[in-house]
């Protein structure tokens, strides 16, 4: 199958059947064999670094090369290397108590893992998912997003270069190919993307009783306490929001600030953008919106908010006129938008940031709890009681305290959502276990 082919259901099923047959034909891969497979992935990222950055730039129209190198090369490289180094330890049987005889849990490969990735950090998702699935001893099939065709084609070529099709295979094509992919009887399916699509994926997987890990994102709040260093908090929130122009599933989606600090937050945000992005239009480090549809969606949020009387604070230090054809959207703060607006209903996935005031801290907690559970939650402050309240009274996929998004980058922590933001988790040993069957074994005494 070539990278440009658009396989149908039968063609995808044929690859899956070959992988299933290969997985059952002999002994499971040993630790040494799995490490060798992981080393091949490491070699691919090292050798194709420049090509990946170039392809990502082409797909986005303009994408920060600094961010691309970190997110889609260095970060998955770190994951692969840590996985390789810790694999022997992960594979050890876990002894369990038994009144007589012996009991233990043996982690064994599931068989074939399907991975469907989103467009925002595509190489990151492909190779981090691959790390966990290969570590667990599985064959792997991957469907990258059709929204970044050059990056997807490059990754497909890279995988063919390093792996036989019955080891790792990439299936490319439009949404219809993705739908056919998700209907296959995998032994596990990892999907990253929008919640609206996640529902369809879950229905399709249910037909074959395929266990699913869904990473769906959501509206991740940042809460700024009165005990916080406001300048530090606002700076970190803005820097996190502007990575990849806000097109990250764990980007801060809205901010809750004490009512008396709202004006100061806006001015700090203005200063941060002026320092980091003094210009936007021709600045190679300021990323464009992925495509025209998403650009129009974001503009629609602004138009609706403006028509509703919301004050929009455009952070455009040089006062440039940005060409819509280039899909660069100036960072924009929305001061206290109403909850009925679409920008407060949808995951934003762009450089727009609603800032909402609160009077009492309990109001902030109640606001978060009144909405679907997010993928990430960020709190800034030094009040131990408030920190405890955030950790005990709210529920989110993960939490980062006095920073944003860092919980998602640690391989020692499980990464995943809860409720509307997803189900299941991967990364590190948690990924190894997600893609393994924990087999209970008892030997009579």
UniProtKB/TrEMBL annotation:
GO cellular component: cytoplasm
UniProt-listed Gene3D superfamilies: Aldehyde Dehydrogenase, Chain A, domain 1, Aldehyde Dehydrogenase, Chain A, domain 2
Catalytic residue positions: 215, 249
The keyword Oxidoreductase is annotated on this UniProt entry: yes
InterPro entries per the UniProt record, alphabetical: Ald_DH/histidinol_DH (IPR016161), Ald_DH_C (IPR016163), Ald_DH_CS_GLU (IPR029510), Ald_DH_N (IPR016162), Aldehyde_DH_dom (IPR015590), Aldehyde_DH_NAD(P) (IPR012394)
Keyword Ubl conjugation: no
Keywords assigned: NAD, Oxidoreductase
CDD domains: ALDH_CALDH_CalB
UniProt-listed GO biological process terms: aldehyde metabolic process
Boundaries of every Aldehyde dehydrogenase domain copy: 8-440
A molecular function (GO) term: aldehyde dehydrogenase (NAD+) activity
Pfam families: Aldedh (PF00171)
Family note: Belongs to the aldehyde dehydrogenase family.
Protein name (record): Aldehyde dehydrogenase
The organism of origin for this protein: Pseudomonas denitrificans
């Amino acid at each position: 199958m070539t990278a440009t082919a658009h396989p149908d259901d039968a063609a995808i099923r044929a690859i899956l059947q070959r992988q299933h047959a290969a997985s059952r034909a002999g002994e499971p891969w040993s630790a040494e064999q799995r490490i060798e497979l992981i080393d091949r992935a490491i070699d691919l990222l090292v050798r194709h670094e420049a090509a990946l950055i170039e392809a990502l730039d082409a797909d986005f129209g303009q994408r920060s090369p600094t961010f691309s190198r970190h997110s889609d090369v260095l970060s998955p490289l770190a994951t692969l290397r840590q996985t390789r180094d810790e694999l022997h330890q992960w594979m050890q049987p876990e002894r369990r108590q038994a009144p007589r005889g012996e009991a233990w849990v043996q982690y064994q490969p599931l068989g074939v893992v399907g991975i469907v990735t989103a467009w925002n950090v595509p190489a990151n998702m492909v190779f981090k998912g691959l790390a966990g699935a290969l570590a667990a001893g599985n064959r792997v099939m991957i469907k990258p997003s059709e929204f970044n065709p050059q990056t997807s084609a490059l990754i497909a070529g890279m995988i063919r270069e390093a792996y036989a099709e019955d080891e790792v295979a990439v299936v490319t094509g439009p949404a219809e190919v993705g739908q056919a992919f998700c209907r296959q009887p995998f032994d596990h399916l990892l999907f990253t993307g929008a919640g609206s699509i996640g529902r369809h994926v879950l229905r399709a997987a249910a037909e074959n009783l395929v266990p699913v890990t869904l990473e769906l994102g959501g509206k991740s709040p940042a809460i700024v306490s009165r005990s916080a260093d406001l300048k530090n908090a606002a700076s970190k929130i803005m820097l996190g929001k502007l990575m990849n122009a806000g097109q990250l599933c764990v980007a801060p989606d809205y901010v809750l600030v004490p009512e008396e600090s709202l004006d100061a937050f806006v001015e700090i945000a203005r200063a941060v953008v002026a320092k980091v992005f003094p210009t936007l239009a021709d600045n190679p480090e300021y990323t464009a919106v992925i495509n025209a549809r998403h650009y129009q969606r974001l503009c629609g949020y602004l138009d609706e908010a403006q028509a509703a009387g919301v004050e929009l604070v455009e952070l455009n230090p040089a006062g440039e006129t940005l060409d819509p054809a280039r899909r660069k959207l100036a960072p924009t703060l929305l001061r206290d938008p109403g909850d009925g607006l679409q920008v407060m209903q949808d995951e934003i996935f762009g450089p727009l940031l609603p800032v909402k005031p609160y009077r009492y801290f309990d109001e902030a907690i109640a606001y978060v709890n009144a909405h679907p559970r997010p993928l990430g939650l960020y709190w800034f402050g030094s009040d131990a009681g408030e920190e405890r309240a955030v950790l005990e009274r709210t529920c989110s996929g993960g939490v980062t305290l006095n920073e944003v998004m860092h919980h998602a980058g640690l391989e020692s922590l499980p990464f995943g959502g809860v409720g509307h933001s997803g189900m299941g988790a991967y990364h590190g040993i948690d990924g190894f276990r997600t893609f393994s069957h924990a087999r209970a074994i008892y030997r009579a005494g």
